[in-house]
Specification:
It contains 13 helices and four strands. The chain has a two-stranded antiparallel sheet. A hairpin with a 2-residue loop joins strand 2 and strand 3. Helix 3 packs antiparallel against helix 10 and helix 8 packs across helix 9. The chain is globular and about 55 Å long. It starts with a helix and ends with a helix.
Length: 316
């Protein structure tokens, strides 16, 4: 009996890596093309975009809030980059404007949630509509905007044959690990998720920490929008839709508790890998688009259910 309990404990503790291993074996048998260099690089380039945003989402969820406006912010940031580049032919200026505006958007989210006490789901849902509307107005009648080759240098270039988007994601991931594991800010983020009132009573400005997590997430959304439009060589109407779902799924699958206080950036990396593999495998298998929604939704449902169960088990 002890042996069975020990095995069960190991399986629960390492559920995501085990699932990734099983998925890899299945894919290897069914779709050997999945492991081709070209496909893996393409997978990494796509997953890196929502992976960048998932770093910030991890911090937010650790504090006990969720931002469902991130996909719309990526959309808005991407359109800003495209329009600024059309006027100035300066990618750096466009990226800077996108990052700053997305930071401002997220700071508004942080203020109304952390200061005014609005539910994060309602506040960020409203902001999602604002960003989607603003981006769609900016794109105007041009449902698809194709940019010159020079515009794609950032998103399509490679370093040692590795897509630059993957390099950017890995760099930001490393920065996220350092920030969360080796700074006071990271310790405060965990503490807010566990007991914000106790942290406030100890003299720490909880509002400022929460606001910083939102601002960081906004900056990452602006950067992700820049990389995304450069990667695909332009912009299109509705770009960024469902990205918030991919981010939240990656964070939750990676072991971050929706109740706050539990999670790691390392876990999010595994979650990004897992969700990326699932998405890519369904595409290679020609799974119907609407069936993909069903599968992704079911994955999210069971990930949250398992996550909540494990959190309650730890607390008992």
């Amino acid at each position: 009996m002890k042996g069975i309990n020990r095995i069960r404990s190991v399986v629960f503790k390492h559920a995501t890596p085990i699932l990734i291993g099983c998925l890899a074996i299945f894919v290897l048998i069914k779709m050997p093309v999945f492991f081709s260099v070209a496909n893996l690089l393409s997978l990494g380039s796509q997953a890196a975009v929502w992976g960048v945003v998932a770093i910030g989402m991890t911090m937010l969820i650790m504090t006990g809030v969720t931002d469902i406006s991130v996909g719309a912010q990526v959309y808005l940031g991407g359109i800003i980059v495209v329009r600024i580049y059309q006027m100035t032919e300066n990618m750096l200026l466009g990226a800077l404007c996108a990052v700053v505006i997305c930071m401002l958007v997220s700071s508004v989210n942080g203020f109304v949630i952390a200061k005014l006490g609005l539910p994060s789901m309602i506040a960020t849902l409203a902001m999602q509509q604002v960003c989607n509307g603003a981006a769609s107005i900016m794109i105007g009648k041009d449902s698809v905007i194709t940019m010159p080759d020079a515009f794609s240098n950032l998103g399509q270039s490679r370093i040692f044959n590795i897509p630059i988007s993957v390099v950017i994601f890995l760099f930001l991931f490393a920065m996220g690990v350092v920030l969360m594991n080796h700074t006071k800010f990271g310790r405060y983020v965990y503490a807010i998720g566990n007991n914000a009132d106790a942290l406030q009573a100890s003299g720490i400005n909880v509002f400022l920490i929460r606001q910083m997590t939102f601002v960081i997430t906004g900056a990452l959304c602006g950067l992700a929008g820049t990389v995304n439009v450069s990667r695909i060589g332009g912009a299109q109407f509705g770009m960024g839709a469902q990205m918030e779902f991919s981010c939240i799924a990656a964070v939750v699958v990676g072991g971050t508790s929706m109740l706050g206080g539990i999670g790691t950036i390392w876990g999010t990396l595994i979650g990004v890998l897992f969700t990326g593999v699932i998405t890519n495998a369904m595409t290679l298998l020609n799974v119907n688009e609407f069936m993909q929604y069903v599968i992704n939704g079911a994955l999210m449902f069971f990930a949250v259910m398992f996550n909540t169960y494990m959190t309650k088990k730890r607390n008992n």
